[in-house]
Design brief:
Helix Hairpins; Rossmann fold; 3 domains; 7-stranded mixed beta sheet
Length: 362
């Protein structure tokens, strides 16, 4: 049965949510404290009403040891009956105090099985809710070096973890992804049910970062069919395969080996330019390149006006056409324009004024 379940999960993908690490010794200590608290409270309750219980010999009030003995056999549901409540007050106390404490005590004792049942129910509810609400999210397929970097950049750019879904085939990658706070699907991304488990039909962006170009082509074709309106970007190891990925439906293709080679060449020929490019690629510090909508305050301004405000405008996107800064086709920004800018990260300190870079560029 377990083998059959694993086979089904392999075909449709296993949905994994980010969770906080469990401290096993702490969980055990909490359960022990709860159990001891139940015993102490019940013993004290019986002690205060010890005259309302029958005992051998008759008429002799319960000792503290008798109260503890009654507590242990009652909470464990053994109940020999040699000590029993006889007064109305003692019986009411057993109904409203001792019985609830017995239930708590039993829950602590069988907590492992109950916790497993609770987690299973909670997972089913959480998975169903997630599938019904997830949309306009980013799906990252593959969690090797490229996939990890992509997820890290997305998180650093302000995209919350619950808007990112990682699809990977091995358990170690899934564990690392969930530790970053993102939802994951374990399974073969070449299978349609696995991608559907990731909500790909409602995704806004898809990043394909597998280690094999042939696999990337197959996944790109499948992703384009399942999510025709999503923006798809794929990585390629070889330049010769880039066109295959574009023909398969990729909106953008990054040739990793060629990109690294160009950056190495740039760094050796012009170390300063290389450092600036590396700074742009490092999502955790320094400068960043972003695409954003214009603000109401920027309506009617020219790209040069934004340069003086500390953002270097590289391109203006208007009506589906991109106007680069070297083309000069835009004099004033319209309401629906989007711009691509280089700017300094708000948390970055001591990196200089971006306006100086703009002046040098001009």
């Amino acid at each position: 049965m377990a083998v059959e379940q694993q086979s089904v999960e392999g075909r449709i993908g296993r949905l994994v949510f980010p969770t906080k690490p469990i401290n096993a010794p702490r969980q055990i200590a909490i359960r022990v404290v709860i159990a001891l608290a139940c015993i102490v409270i019940t013993t004290a309750t019986v002690w205060f009403e010890r005259y309302g219980y029958s005992n051998e010999p008759p008429g002799k009030p319960l000792s503290l040891l008798d109260c503890l003995y009654y507590t242990t056999v009652t909470l464990s549901t053994t109940g020999y009956g040699d000590i029993a409540p006889i007064s109305p007050e003692a019986r009411l106390t057993n109904v409203f105090v001792v019985t609830p404490l017995r239930l708590v005590f039993l829950i602590v004792l069988v907590g492992t099985a109950l916790e497993a049942l609770t987690k299973s129910t909670q997972y089913q509810w959480r998975a169903r809710k997630w599938r019904n609400t997830v949309s306009d999210h980013t799906v990252v397929i593959g969690y090797g070096v490229k996939g990890r970097s992509a997820v890290r950049s997305l998180l650093d750019s302000g995209i919350p973890g619950n808007r990112i879904v990682v699809v990977a085939n091995d358990e170690e990658s899934i564990r690392e992804a969930t530790e970053q706070g993102v939802t994951s699907v374990q399974g073969d991304a070449r299978r349609e049910p696995v991608l559907m488990q990731a909500g790909i039909s409602r995704a806004r962006r898809i990043i394909i970062a597998t280690d094999e170009d042939a696999t990337s082509v197959l996944i790109t074709m499948l992703a384009k069919r399942l999510a025709p309106s999503a923006t798809i970007v794929s990585a390629a190891k070889e330049t010769s395969n880039a066109q295959f990925l574009r023909d398969s439906g990729a909106d953008g293709v990054i040739v990793t080996a060629e990109a690294v080679g160009r950056l190495l060449s740039l760094s050796i020929e012009s170390p300063t330019a290389g450092n600036l490019m590396e700074d742009l690629l490092d999502s955790g510090r320094g400068l960043e390149m972003v695409e954003r909508s214009i603000t109401p305050e920027e309506l009617g301004l020219g790209p040069d006006d934004l340069d003086r405000e500390g953002e270097l405008v590289l391109a203006v996107i208007r009506d589906g056409h991109t106007y680069r800064f070297d083309e000069g086709g835009v004099k004033a920004l319209n309401r629906d324009d989007r711009i691509v800018v280089i700017r300094q990260r708000p948390e970055s300190q001591g990196l200089g004024d971006l306006g100086a870079i703009s002046d040098e560029a001009q």
